[in-house]
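Open question from group meeting: does this chain pack into something compact, or does most of it stay loose? Before anyone orders reagents, we agreed to write out a predicted structure and look at it together. Recording both the input and the output here so the notebook holds the full record.
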Amino acid sequence: MKILKLLLVGVLLTGCVITDDGIALNPPGPQVFVCLNAVTDDEALEFKSEIEDEPFKDDRLDKAQRLAKDRCFQSRHVITVMSAMQFESNKLEIAKFLYLKTEDQQNYEDVVDALTYGSSKDELRDYIDAMS
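Structure tokens returned:
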């Protein structure tokens, strides 16, 4: 039944792309993204706990990237995942990595504010501008 629904959605939504993360609609104008595998608040906290179990900073970043595969987030979830990182450089890296997986990118300034250093905030803003 799920396959039939996806086929029906594909037929009704011409110009769309079905990905592992959701459906990207490509009408004239801005792209609309519909997430099929969104992270919940509880899952974001579980991710944070699993990431914190890793002893080394690079392992934490790798774990976060693996957990985020095929998932999409809200800005508040990105902040939760970032808080599991020990170092600012890793917080910045995961914030960049999750930007395109974030449904409410209009609220990403909250993620920017969660960084400590002005240079990191500027770098994330520059990244966001480059991706827009």
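Observations to bring back to the group:
Residues 2-35 form one domain.
Strands lie at 16-18, 22-25, 32-35.
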